[in-house]
Amino acid sequence: MTLIEVQGLVKNFPGRHGSITIMEDIGFSVADNDFLAIVGPSGSGKSTLLRLIQGLDRPNRGRVLFRGKTVEGVQLDMAMVFQSFALYPWLTVKENVALGLEARNWSRERQEAQVERYVNVTGLEGFEEAYPRELSGGMRQRVGLARALAVEPAVLLMDEPFSSLDALTAEGLREEVLQLWQDPALPPEAVLLVTHNIEEAVAMADRIIVLSRRPARVLAGVPVQLSRPRDRKSPAFYELTDYVYSLITQGSAPAPLAPSAA
């Protein structure tokens, strides 16, 4: 079942000498159970695209459909995990996780149970009363992930969620996100991951949308048909990573992908 349809999106921003077109005629779809990665050069509007999908911003032309209806405002069935953690420093871990639940009109008991569940799911037990300044970068991002999952979104949007972390912490958190994603008892129904890291996209996603330089267009939708867990040292993994890299750097499709990486 198709959850999201992105149809002919155009987005402009004002500049000193007139408007600047960030993206031009962007289109793709996201199905139930998709883990979709979006990659492209810096300035190609990847983060802006996530904002348009969630309804935090409006396109100049085109539209986004969510479950068959045009997105015209913020979608409460989507949740975002940010690169910068976006935590309130004066709130505890528990209070930060609870933030998104206040708009749900749930009872206090249900909110508390939900917070406890996702604090546990994301490995934050024992840190409920801690403040963000007392946490490492990896733990702060766990709080951001718990806050997003607590609202039980149909779609989880992740904007460079691991780029501010050291390599070992980032790799551990990637594995945990995949474990959560593969657990049928947990949300979401689909994940959209924006990343500059091509290996990360190949390691995590089922499909990769490759954007061109500004004004961004979709160069390709690349399926990732590699079994999980993915072996980063395998020839197929390397070939697929190189193929996506070539798409971005050349700005057009290179030679067809070798069968071993398909």
TrEMBL record:
NADP in keyword set: no
The keyword Iron appears for this protein: no
Name of the featured protein: ABC transporter, ATP-binding protein
Lineage, top ranks: unclassified sequences, metagenomes, ecological metagenomes
PROSITE patterns associated with the record: ABC_TRANSPORTER_1, ABC_TRANSPORTER_2
Keywords: ATP-binding, Nucleotide-binding, Transport
Any one Pfam family match given in the protein's UniProt record, by short name: ABC_tran
Domain ABC transporter: 4-238
Organism field: mine drainage metagenome
GO molecular function: ATP binding; ATP hydrolysis activity
